[in-house]
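User: Design a sequence. Structure:
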């Protein structure tokens, strides 16, 4: 594929995903403006991000600290919005606090405290979501649903963070009714936090390439889409 063909393909994929979002919104009686698209660019080069930015995409998601910071730095002139969505170790929090606008994967207080301390005064507060383990023992990442409220209350107090909402990655399953129940659980939790704690959380980060339609029907406000935009990922062997 030539560079031009590649850019055309990415742009076509982007349009197809936006059309899917719009269709799901219409089915759910929601406005397409209420659902944001995060393009998950992990493992793909800065040139691919740049091509999508030219096609109008503004927000990009990364899972790996080194790789994500590299792209954010390289493309800083484009004024894109960078979201960290992967597991985060304490010793890498400083780089994330410096380079990203959002972190979706907060699952313990210590990481949140470090990010708040390390967020530079000249940057806007870091937008964060608490990652909730909505699949019980079938998945390891995220705080247990019954511990989410306590963590949210503590994170909301941190001065350099802006608590925006909740994020979840359900266990992979072909069973749509299971997925639906996982997404519904996250929505119920968000509603409870708003009703009982008055947080005004506006973000439900849920839905990926294979299940974004279901997630939108269950209230998602931000879908994280990699494969359907960039194609199949090939992981480098480290
Ligand atoms: C990789 C990843 C995605 C994108 O997954 P696709 O199935 O490729 O759309 C979304 N969210 C998280 C947290 C991821 O790690």
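Assistant: Done.
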């Amino acid at each position: 594929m030539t560079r031009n063909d590649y850019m055309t393909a990415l742009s076509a994929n982007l349009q197809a995903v936006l059309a899917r979002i719009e269709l799901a919104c219409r089915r759910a009686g929601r406005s397409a403006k209420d659902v944001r698209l995060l393009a998950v660019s992990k493992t793909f080069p800065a040139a691919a991000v740049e091509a999508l930015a030219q096609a109008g995409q503004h927000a990009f998601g990364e899972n790996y600290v080194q790789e994500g910071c590299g792209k954010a730095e390289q493309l800083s002139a484009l004024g894109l919005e960078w979201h960290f969505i992967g597991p985060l170790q304490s010793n890498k929090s400083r780089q994330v606090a410096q380079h990203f606008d959002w972190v979706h994967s907060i699952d313990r207080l210590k990481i949140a405290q470090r990010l708040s301390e390390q967020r530079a005064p000249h940057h806007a507060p870091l937008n964060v979501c608490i990652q909730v383990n909505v699949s019980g023992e079938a998945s390891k990442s995220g705080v247990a649903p019954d511990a989410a409220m306590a963590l949210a209350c503590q994170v909301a107090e941190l001065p350099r963070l802006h608590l925006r909402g909740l994020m979840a990655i359900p266990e992979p399953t072909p069973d749509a009714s299971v997925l639906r129940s996982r997404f519904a659980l996250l929505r119920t939790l968000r509603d409870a936090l708003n009703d009982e704690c008055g947080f005004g959380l506006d973000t439900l980060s849920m839905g990926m390439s294979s299940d974004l339609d279901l997630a939108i029907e269950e209230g998602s406000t931000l879908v994280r889409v990699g494969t359907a935009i960039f194609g199949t990922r090939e992981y480098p062997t480290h």
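The radius of gyration is 17 Å. The chain has a mean pLDDT of 95.
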